[in-house]
Amino acid sequence: MWIAISIAIVVLLLFLVVLTAKVTFQIHYATPEWNIQIRVFGILIRKWQMKQNSSIEPSSSKDLKQQLVDIFADLQKISHSFPYLLRITRNAELQQLRWHTMIGMSDAASAGALVGFVWTIKGIANQVIRSNFRTAEPFDIQVQPIFNTFLFNTSFQCIVSIRTGKAMQAIISNARER
After folding, report:
1. Other beta carbons less than 10 A from residue 72's beta carbon
2. Considering Cα of 47, then 53, then 58, then 59, what sign does the dihedral take?
3. 111 exposed, middle or buried (CB, 10 Å; 0-12, 13-18, 19+)?
4. What are the helix (H) ranges across 21-151?
5. DSSP letters along 127-175, please?
6. What pTM, to 2 d.p., does this model score?
7. For residues 163 and 22, is the Cβ–Cβ distance under 8 A?
8. Which residue ranges make up each domain of the chain?
9. Residues 10-62: pLDDT tens digits?
């Protein structure tokens, strides 16, 4: 009898520990490589390194425009999942966000206009992120113009953590709505 009660208490305690565990996702992108790590209780559980297949360095303004069109087309393909992702992110904490971009064109006026466009995109992304995540510290977002050369170089790093119980709760509520 006491053994069964002891086993039940241990199982219950393990279940509570699992529900309150903090899962941390660390995402780092530096042209042309993605590094993603998942940690639980600070212990590395899974690590991915992926190389980008295609170059994102434009050779002309038309190439850059086509790349932006392709990015927006890809976003439209996955846009149906945004409401479900937003429900999960409201329970997540964004601990760090660092996003630096260097962009250049052969013409200084074009470079300036493009830098303004990139700042606009980053500003919109900043507001969407701040309204859907709890944030721990200020973001480090920069755009550096480079003149008289075609260049696009970006690096991105973020750390997001979520309690497993909160993630499970959001996933269950998403499944109920579908």
Report:
1. 10
2. positive
3. buried
4. 61-78, 82-89, 108-132
5. HHHHHHSEESS--EEEEEEEESS-EEEEEEEEEEEEEHHHHHHHHHHHH
6. 0.70
7. yes
8. 21-177
9. 888 888 877 778 888 898 888 778 888 888 888 888 888 887 655 555 555 66
